[in-house]
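Anyone able to model this chain together with 3,4-dihydroxyphenylalanine?
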Amino acid sequence: MKQALEQIKTAAVEALEKCDNLKALEELKVKYLGKKGELTAILKQMGKLSAEERPVIGQLANEVRSTIEEEVKTRTAALKEKELEEQLAAEKIDVTMPGKKFQVGKKHPLTLVMDEIKEIFLGMGFDVVDGPEVELDYYNFEALNIPKNHPARDTQDTFYINDNVVMRTQTSPVQVRTMEKRKPPIRIISPGRVYRSDALDATHSPVFHQIEGLVVDKGITMSDLKGTLEMFVKSLYGEDSVVRFRPHHFPFTEPSAEMDVMCFNCHGEGCRICKGEGWIEILGAGMVHPKVLQNCGIDPEEYSGFAFGMGLERVVMRRFAIDDIRMFFENDQRFLDQF
Ligand code: DAH
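re: yes, here you go
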């Protein structure tokens, strides 16, 4: 029995010294010191010993136990230390390593100019309001004095969700929605996406942006329209900009006009940029048609107003000399990085 105890001690110490991880160490501890372990198995046989032998073997057994326990303790501490060191080494940060490049986003050129235009109108006391892109036929056409079968619908062919719901072809429906909700004085712009079933080419896109404007109050006249829009153009293109108004027709304004700005490149002479015209068309405008006011529950005898609408893409294309509208929607980083 004495021999057996010595063997256990030697085997245990050897195994513990070789052991290189905490999990295996735990297993060894159970193997030698556990309830079903080797040492316990020997002690169970103590009953068979004579009265003289028993204390001797008992003492030896205790010694073996404490030697193994000591060794377990030492190895546990050593292995814990080792694992910590390994973890620290693995987590070490090499401060000389090149960093990961962080890509900072930029504003899209359309957003850049849109923000600028918003700022100009905010400065003149306008509010910015939103409207739905999926719009009722009523707001996009009917309420704007464009009944079914009106020829104006031809030039604004769109995507129909069903007979009564369309992708809006213009931001003008926001005028109606605003007048239904608010009482004059009203002074708003409404920027946003619009849709037309045009084939995609260098100058046409089935989705583009417009900015709508609407002013309704007592005593609003055509000169308010002209003054406001001229001030807008001077803020956007510079104090020396020259504008002109030409008569035009829109079903929802009367009278209607288009506003041109003198070509900044040739100053009216005619060049490639203005296609020889000397002037560049910027927007449509007019005095809100009395029928439209009526449709929105505003008395045209008491109130009058003006409205305007402009396409954003063309303004931005001219600003940055972009010659293809498709560039805006392709999300090519090489293009977008230039702004
Ligand atoms: N909605 C018109 C279009 O898409 C632009 C327009 C013209 C808007 C005159 C207006 C306006 O508010 O008064 O062609």
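The mean pLDDT is 92.
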